[in-house]
C-alpha cells in the first residue's frame, strides 16, 4: 500500500505562504487518492479465496469473506446442506463471487470435487483458504465430557479438525500453482484449557491446533502458510448451541484486560492480517482476538 507521505506533492520555486497552502491542499487531495486506491487495490487485489463455513450474515466466516472482498479478492463459497444453501447464495451474490457449491467435509470424494471446481473457477490456482468449520452434537455440549459416546467423539474430531487436513491436502496443488498461499482456521481457548460445557469441542480444537503446526511444517516448503485465529465468544449460530454461552461472554467482559466483547468484524481484521502478505513470515501461529482474556490466570 502507498505511504501517506509519498502521496504528498512537493512544490519548488514558489513563495513560502503559497507553497504551504498548496502543500496542505495537495496533502488533502493525496489522502483522498490514498483512500480511493486502498479501496480499489487492497491487500487481496487479484487474490482467489475459498471460504468454508458461512452459514448466515452473523458468521465469522462471512465477516472474513466481506473483508477479503472489500480488499479485492474473488471468492468461492461452500455450504453444507439444503437448509443454509439459500442464505449462502444470497450472501455470495453481494460480493465478487466465482463459485458457490455444496461440501460435506466428512467425504474425501466431496472435498476433492469441491477443489476440482475451485481449480476450474480460478484457472488452476488458489491463494487463500478460510476454514471455519466445526460441529459437535448439541447434547455433548450440555452434560459431562466423560459421557461423550465414541461415535459422536469421532464425529466432532472429523468435522472440526480432520476436515482442515483434508482441505489443506486438496488446496496444496492449487496453491503451489499460485506460487504459495495462506490457510486460516478458527480455534478457541477451549482447546488449551477446560471450559465448562465446551467438552468434546475443546478436544477437537486441541486436535485442530496441533494440526495447524504440522501442516505449517509440511506445506511451508511450498510457500504455503497455515495459521489460526482464536476468537473470544462471538454471537454466532454455532455459539447458541453451547450451554451457558451468555455466562462465557460475561466472564470475558469482566476479566479480559480490555473489558469488552469481541465481534465478528474484530476477528475478520485479525484474519485478514494472517491471510495477507503482511504476514508472509508468520506460520504455525495462533492469533488471539479475545480482548486479552487468554493472558489471564483467573
Structural commentary:
The structure is a single chain. The chain is α/β, with parallel strands linked by helices. The protein folds into 2 domains: about 35 residues, no CATH class; about 250 residues, Rossmann fold (3-Layer(aba) Sandwich), CATH 3.40.50.720. It has 8 helices and 7 strands. It has a 7-stranded parallel β-sheet with strand order 3-2-1-4-5-6-7, with helices on both faces. Strand 4, helix 5 and strand 5 form a beta-alpha-beta unit. The longest helix has 28 residues. It is globular, with a radius of gyration of 22 Å. The relative contact order is 0.12.
Keyword list:
298 residues, 2 domains, seven-stranded parallel β-sheet, 45% helix, globular, disordered N terminus
Helix content: 40-55%
Shape: globular
Radius of gyration: 22 Å
Do you know the CATH topology of the largest domain?
Rossmann fold
What class, by secondary structure content?
alpha/beta
Helix count from the secondary structure assignment: 8
| Tally of individual domains | 2
Strand order of the largest sheet: 3-2-1-4-5-6-7
Based on the coordinates given, report the CATH architecture of the largest domain: 3-Layer(aba) Sandwich
CATH class category of the largest domain: Alpha Beta
Unreliable stretches covering 5 or more consecutive residues: 1-40
CATH superfamily of the largest domain: NAD(P)-binding Rossmann-like Domain
Q: Helix and strand string, N-terminal first?
A: HEHEHEHEHEHEHHE
Extended strand count: 7
Mean pLDDT figure:
86
How much β-strand is present in the residues? 5-15%
Amino acid at each position: 500500500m502507498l505511504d501517506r507521505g509519498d502521496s504528498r506533492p512537493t512544490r519548488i520555486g514558489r513563495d513560502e505562504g503559497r507553497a504551504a497552502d498548496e502543500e496542505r491542499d495537495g496533502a488533502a487531495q493525496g489522502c483522498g487518492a490514498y483512500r480511493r486506491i486502498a479501496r480499489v487495490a487492497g491487500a487481496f487485489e487479484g487474490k482467489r479465496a475459498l471460504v468454508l463455513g458461512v452459514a448466515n450474515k452473523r458468521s465469522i466466516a462471512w465477516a472474513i469473506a466481506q473483508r477479503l472482498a472489500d480488499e479485492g479478492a474473488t471468492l468461492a463459497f461452500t455450504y453444507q446442506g439444503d437448509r443454509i444453501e439459500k442464505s449462502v447464495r444470497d450472501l455470495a451474490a453481494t460480493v465478487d463471487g466465482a463459485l458457490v457449491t455444496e461440501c460435506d467435509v466428512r467425504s474425501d470424494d466431496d472435498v476433492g470435487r469441491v477443489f476440482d471446481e475451485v481449480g476450474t473457477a480460478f484457472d488452476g490456482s488458489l491463494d487463500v483458504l478460510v476454514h471455519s468449520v466445526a460441529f459437535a452434537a448439541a447434547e455433548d455440549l450440555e452434560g459431562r465430557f466423560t459421557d461423550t459416546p465414541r461415535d459422536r467423539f469421532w464425529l466432532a474430531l472429523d468435522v472440526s479438525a480432520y476436515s482442515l487436513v483434508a482441505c489443506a491436502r486438496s488446496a496444496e496443488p492449487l496453491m503451489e500453482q499460485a506460487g504459495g498461499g495462506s490457510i486460516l482456521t478458527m480455534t478457541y481457548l477451549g482447546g488449551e484449557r477446560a471450559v465448562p460445557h465446551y467438552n468434546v469441542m475443546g478436544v477437537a480444537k486441541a486436535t485442530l491446533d496441533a494440526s495447524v503446526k504440522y501442516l505449517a511444517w509440511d506445506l511451508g516448503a511450498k510457500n504455503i502458510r497455515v495459521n489460526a485465529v482464536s476468537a473470544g465468544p462471538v454471537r454466532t449460530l454455532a455459539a447458541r448451541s453451547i450451554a451457558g454461552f451468555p455466562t462465557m461472554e460475561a466472564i470475558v467482559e469482566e476479566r479480559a484486560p480490555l473489558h469488552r466483547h469481541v465481534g465478528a468484524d474484530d476477528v475478520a481484521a485479525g484474519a485478514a492480517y494472517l491471510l495477507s502478505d503482511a504476514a508472509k513470515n508468520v506460520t504455525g501461529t495462533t492469533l488471539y482476538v479475545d480482548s486479552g482474556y487468554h493472558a489471564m490466570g483467573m
